[in-house]
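thought: fold this chain, then report.
action: predict
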Amino acid sequence: MSRAFEYTYRVFWSAEDEEFVGTCAEFPFLSFVGESPAETLDGILEVVDGAIEMLEEEGKEAPAPLGSRSFSGKFPLRMPPELHRELAMEAAEQDISLNRLINLRLAASM
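observation:
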């Protein structure tokens, strides 16, 4: 079975191209354009499979799939001081931590 199935894909309609576009998060420089979502997914899988083969032939490693990477759950975040103050005040008013407020906001935006 191809390792290409381990990666993260997105297929979306492009008004500009008037076709579907397939991309792979781990290989952001690759894409495939097709007439249907199924054709586009099959196409980008083939493109990624070819890229993996080429990397292996050159003795290079393919990127680790996002699904197999471990994440710490920590993400340093920089923001303008004014926004920091505004969020800290809102968190205090809600009697929750700033961390909790930001997590709630991020979850709501998904």
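thought: worth noting. The longest helix spans residues 37-57.
final: tokens above.
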